[in-house]
Amino acid sequence: MRVARWIPPGLVLLALSAFIWWSDQPRFRHAFVAELQTCSVHQLAHLPESTDFVALGSSRVLMGFDPEALEQASGGLVHHAYNLGRVRRSVERSYRILRDVVDAGIRPQFVLVELSQDRLSGRAQGRLPVLRSAGFMRYSDAWMYLQAVPSMPLLERLHFVVLNQLRKLDSSVKHALSAQAWKHVFGSAPQAADKVCLGDASFLTAPDHERAIAHQKRIYQQRFGDLGTAFDDTFRWRASARTEVELYFLQRMRALAAKHGMTVLVGVHWRAFQPPLSPRAIDEIRSRIPEFVYPPAEVVRSSWAGFVDKGHMDAPARRLYSEWLGSVLTDIAARNGEAALGETGPES
Fold first, then answer.
1. The whole model's pTM is what?
2. What pLDDT does residue 345 have?
């Protein structure tokens, strides 16, 4: 009788443990990407081991990077590039995607990581928001905030950890009750991974985007004057809780890359008619983030005509950016080759 009394709570505990394990599996988690669920699950589930370049970031990366253009511009250096950008910005999610890729046995030669210029400059202030992408993360990821934000009081950090755990559990339960969860976990047949989960991208654009772009152009003209010659020199590095989160997860990705022989590049995307960063601003960012790459001013200005809305590139602009990025990779490879030759000496 005493044993029988413990059977119901034991079964409940077993069921809860099984659900937590299931909702931590990649095919379950990778579905938490708004409108691109099916493509996201297939892309990450079937990413080939030959992948040698991945781009991680928000919808600006999703809309702003063309893998095929990069492959063509890299001079044979990159053969299998993939755009793993996802809707909404989250450096935490970028870390988790890279960790999932590495855990799957894939070792890309190059990893492009998007960071938030607003967060690095301290313009994004206030308390850390509970992650919209909490469902995408593993339960253990939330505990990283105990280290990620040393400026935040310990009790506040613990509170934030608990909130993210509850958000993940809540979103996981809702997803498990949908037909999509079973389809993604058990119905994802082997197929070639899409190079980018772009879809029609109509959810990223406003109906009156042309008017919005024109309004944004006028605002930048009022702030900076002649956009044909202006530079954005407003960036100033400011410490904040959000800055700490960006740098902490970047450091986690650096460590992961160093362990597995990958090269990390860090970039930021700009908006339509936003002037290019000034040389001083670029130097200030590189003083903290040496991996920072940013295109020449003429590339930024030439891209303005190819935006589909205020913040997202259309095909011509993303091709222009990707071709420039391909040239950056060949320069890095050449420098690395010269360094290796210097260490070993020329062949006799």
1. 0.87
2. 46
